[in-house]
Amino acid sequence: MDLRELLKDKLSEEELKFVPRSFDIIGSKGKAVAIVKIRREIESKDKLIAEAIMKINKNVKSVLKKLSGRIGKYRLYNLELIAGDENTEVIHKEYGYIIKVDPRKAYFSPRESTERQRIASQAKPNEIIMLMFAGTGVYGIAICKKQPNVGKVIAIEINPDAFYYMQENIRINKLSNKIIPILGDVEEKCKDYFGICDRVIMPFATEGWKHLETAIKCLKQNGILHFYFISSEERLFQDAIEILIKEVEKLGRKVEVLSKRIVGRFGVRLYKVCIDAKII
């Protein structure tokens, strides 16, 4: 049974049209949190929707309503608890590793597990990898589990709560010998690693482009960059590639685009894309 079927006796036909068809669930069989976006047309029915989500998904103990996109210095959604347990910290499992997180304190997307595996499968033995905007450390953990002979992953995060969860996740997954967690601004902390990285990952799609110069400076010659960007449907990869070329050439280097792909939808006719490129 889906949400609309469960709510058909409590909402009008017009209201049912706006009931969300999908939502994120973060957590495990024992305890999970649902994150849902509710249209303003049915905002007054948010608690009914939350209760229906919990009825269908017995492991969901809390429902959070998304009030904004990712905002502020710490790149967080504004989330409001509309039903269930006030404690929204959960343990999430994917591809054999564990992520501890409270989505109200640190960003985490369960939808991008496949993309994390794609990046992890490219890591090579002995590589030094820079993970900018590291969050809970999930990209670094995915890499180390997929490629246990990786050299080091340098994981930089500015949000103290996300940094706490990154440290916890490194400990839980027994990767303290592989991942170096660093609390601070990438613009300052990356300076210590200029010219020594084989690979740089920039998962912050909305504003990561502002830090391209710093990312490029981290890379050795022929290093690999994974650059995420939000693109319109009309200029799906064009803007991201043009921005990347401009920043690379400004530093007197060259770029070879290796691949370009859509990671997922971001909004109406907007997509999160990734450009994989060799920086020569």
Index terms:
Rossmann fold; 2 domains; 7-stranded mixed beta sheet; 13 strands; 9 helices; alpha/beta; 4-stranded mixed beta sheet; 280 residues; single chain; 26% helix; GMP Synthetase, Chain A, domain 3
Descriptive notes:
The structure is a single chain. This protein is α/β, with parallel strands linked by helices and 280 residues long. It folds into two domains: 3-88, Met-10+ protein-like domains (GMP Synthetase, Chain A, domain 3), CATH 3.30.300; 105-279, Vaccinia Virus protein VP39 (Rossmann fold). Helices cover 26% and strands 32% of the residues. It is built from nine helices and 13 strands. The strands form three sheets. The protein has a seven-stranded mixed β-sheet. Strand 1 and strand 2 form a beta hairpin. Helix 4 (113-120) packs across helix 5 (138-146).
Give the topology.
Elements: H1 3-7, H2 13-16, E1 24-27, E2 32-36, H3 46-56, E3 60-66, E4 79-84, E5 90-94, E6 97-101, H4 113-120, E7 128-131, H5 138-146, E8 152-157, H6 160-172, E9 179-183, H7 186-189, E10 197-202, H8 212-218, E11 219-232, H9 238-250, E12 255-267, E13 270-279
Parallel strand pairs: 2-3, 7-8, 7-10, 8-9, 10-11
Antiparallel strand pairs: 1-2, 3-4, 5-6, 11-13, 12-13
Helix pairs in contact: 4-5
The CATH topology label of the largest domain is: Rossmann fold
The main β sheet shows up as: 7 strands, mixed
Please tell me the overall pLDDT: 96
What is the correct CATH architecture of the largest domain? 3-Layer(aba) Sandwich
What is the chains' assembly state? single chain
CATH superfamily of the largest domain: Vaccinia Virus protein VP39
Total helical elements:
9
Please indicate the percent range of residues in DSSP E strands (runs of 2 or more): 25-35%
Shape: globular
Helical residue percent? 25-40%
Task: Please give the domain count.
Answer: 2
H/E element string? Answer: HHEEHEEEEHEHEHEHEHEHEE
Show unreliable segments.
none
